[in-house]
TrEMBL record:
Pathway: Carbohydrate metabolism. It comes from Clonostachys solani. InterPro entries: Citrate_synth-like_lrg_a-sub (IPR016142), Citrate_synth-like_sm_a-sub (IPR016143), Citrate_synthase (IPR002020), Citrate_synthase_AS (IPR019810), Citrate_synthase_bac-typ (IPR024176), Citrate_synthase_sf (IPR036969). Gene3D superfamilies: Citrate Synthase, domain 1, Cytochrome P450-Terp, domain 2. GO terms for biological process: monocarboxylic acid metabolic process; tricarboxylic acid cycle. The lineage of its organism: Eukaryota, Fungi, Dikarya, Ascomycota, Pezizomycotina. SUPFAM superfamilies: Citrate synthase (SSF48256). Keywords: Transferase, Tricarboxylic acid cycle. Belongs to the citrate synthase family. Residues 476-499 are annotated as: Disordered. GO terms for molecular function: acyltransferase activity, acyl groups converted into alkyl on transfer. This is Citrate synthase. The keyword 4Fe-4S does not apply. The keyword Transferase applies.
């Protein structure tokens, strides 16, 4: 006898034990709507009014561990199986067969471009590589040793000031969202900003680098590829017909493909959060840069190399790993929120590393890195937590072999990631139902309503913890002589400064 298969209902039946009521929540694309859960209401039972129980059940998901915030057609990641696809194409295929600008087109517009689409796209991007010369002045106003990410973040925000016609705060908040209904002018404006941002990103990045080097800025070169032009902007000093080494140009292009998008990672979520306020795309890019700069995200490749330099040589690996296993240190370049197996980007990057080292010479830290990776593979602590090398573990080794300074690594990540941010921003602006501002909820655990206490009646809490008031800070700019001096403060009383 064969069992008759019936299609199970695509829904979730939930019983609220507080009320005895049963709810059926539809399941679509293996998800339930958080707003359906809000329909589950109860009368408060001896609980804080701040729980707002009668207004509906809330979903608590700190750090977005299991919350889908967008419907997207851009990038698919399967962390269990180590899969990364842009618009359906496996990352390995794109690294081997595509180039960065073609991949950028794919990510933003959904299909690989035809030859003629490709050549228009490339020439438009290269046409938009120039920046207004006043922006160079912004770079020059930075301290000589400023971190290039501080400069790049500011540069994107500054760029917005040069495009008031692309600012929804000035031109009307539907400036870009009108494009969703097919408004050609809105779509042109939207796509023009995309060309401008992708075109200018290497120019701004290179300016931050040249500023640190104390070298004059180069103007974009004609006739070079996207990464070739970037290398020119970074490195050209004198002479004619500059051509970067083809292996390095190609490796950088491949690294750009690998870093172009990674679905709703921290910086892309930031981009979408900020974008949902309908602010201009330049401010959106600046926000993306800020999120990317953190050591848990795009700052990891820089931190990974600093860590390898601190370890120094392979024989010091066991001692360092013992610290990791005692949870005194984090093994930077390992672990990922989504990949709990292999990070497919790290596999592609290892192949690239071999090619680059043939030209640049082997990175001296490679032996330490490989010993560390081997030790980590065998470590019970690492294995039980599914901690494997991520993209940043190897990318830093390539950047270092190519001679980039450590603090430039996040910039080398931000330039290609602009493409992923823009793909997501465009998808957001073109949402057929319109853009709703992103406004998460909270569980309020603080005080209930309190009566204001006049200053003279206030007392310090006897059980106050160190966090409950500002701690005394050191004034770095004060000299010892100044600290020993007496002076009248703003209220006129004589004060002796404390050391
Ligand atoms: C990427 C990262 C932020 C992901 O964080 P996450 O998904 O929130 O993972 P968790 O912090 O929940 O980690 C799970 C466990 O592994 C440990 N862990 C995670 N990454 C670790 C690392 N790199 N080194 C040592 N322990 C690590 C955590 O301490 C935790 O241990 P516990 O369960 O005993 O408390 C994290 O793995 C990390 O900080 N890695 C180093 C920075 C890095 O390389 N970032 C680039 C990412 S591409």
């Amino acid at each position: 006898m064969t069992a008759i298969k019936t299609n199970p209902r695509q829904s979730l039946t939930v019983v609220d034990n507080r009320t005895g009521k049963t709810y059926e929540l539809p399941i679509k694309d293996n998800s339930v709507l958080a707003t359906d859960i809000k329909n589950i209401k109860a009368q408060p039972q001896d609980e804080r009014p701040e729980n707002e129980t009668s207004q509906g059940l809330r979903v608590f998901d700190p750090a977005y561990m299991n919350t889908a915030v967008i419907q997207s057609k851009i990038t698919y990641i399967n962390g269990q199986d180590g899969i990364l696809r842009y618009r359906g194409y496996p990352i390995q295929d794109l690294v081997h067969k595509s180039n960065f600008l073609e991949t950028a087109y794919l990510l933003i517009y959904g299909e690989l471009p035809t030859s003629s689409q490709s050549s228009t796209w490339e020439s438009e991007i290269m046409h938009h590589t120039y920046i207004h010369s006043d922006i160079e002045g912004m770079f020059k106003s930075f301290r000589y040793d400023s971190h290039p990410m501080s400069m790049l973040t500011s540069a994107f925000a500054t760029l917005g000031a040069f495009a008031p016609e692309a600012n929804p705060s000035l031109q009307g908040q539907k400036l870009f969202t009108k494009a969703a209904s097919g408004d050609l002018e809105a779509l042109q404006s939207l796509d023009k900003q995309i060309l401008r941002i992708i075109g200018k990103a290497p120019t701004l990045a290179a300016a931050s680098y040249r500023m640190r080097q104390g070298r004059p800025f180069n103007r974009p070169a004609q006739g070079l590829s996207y990464t070739g032009n970037f290398l020119y902007l970074l490195d050209h000093l004198s002479g004619h017909e500059y051509k970067p080494h083809p292996v390095l140009e190609k490796a950088l292009d491949a690294l750009f493909i690998i870093h172009a998008d990674h679905e709703v990672n921290c910086s892309t979520a930031t981009v979408l959060q900020v974008g949902s306020s309908l602010v201009d795309p330049y401010s959106v890019m600046a926000a993306g840069c800020s999120a990317l700069y953190g050591p848990s995200h795009g700052g990891a490749s820089e931190s990974a190399i600093r860590m390898l330099m601190e370890i120094g040589s392979p024989e010091n690996v066991p001692a360092f790993m013992q610290k990791v296993e005692k949870r005194e240190r984090v093994l930077v370049g390992f672990g990922h929120r989504v990949y709990k197996n292999v990070d497919p980007r790290s596999t592609a990057i290892r192949e690239l590393a071999e090619e680059v080292f043939k030209v640049t010479g082997r990175n001296k830290l490679l032996d330490t890195a490989l010993t560390l990776a081997q030790y980590a593979r065998e470590s019970e602590f690492m294995r039980s937590r599914n901690l494997y090398p991520n993209v940043d573990f190897y990318s830093g080794l390539i950047y270092q072999a190519m001679g980039f300074p450590l603090d430039f690594y996040p910039v080398l990540f931000a330039v290609p990631r602009c493409v992923g941010w823009l793909a997501h921003w465009r998808q957001q602006m073109l949402t057929p139902s319109g853009v709703k501002i992103w406004r998460p909820r909270q569980l309020y655990l603080g005080h209930g309503e309190r009566e204001y206490v006049e200053a003279e009646k206030r007392k310090e809490k006897p059980d106050a913890a160190i966090f409950d008031a500002p701690v005394q800070v050191q004034h770095g700019g004060d000299s010892k002589r100044n600290n020993l001096a007496t002076y009248r403060d703003e209220r006129g009383s004589v004060t002796k400064a404390k050391l």
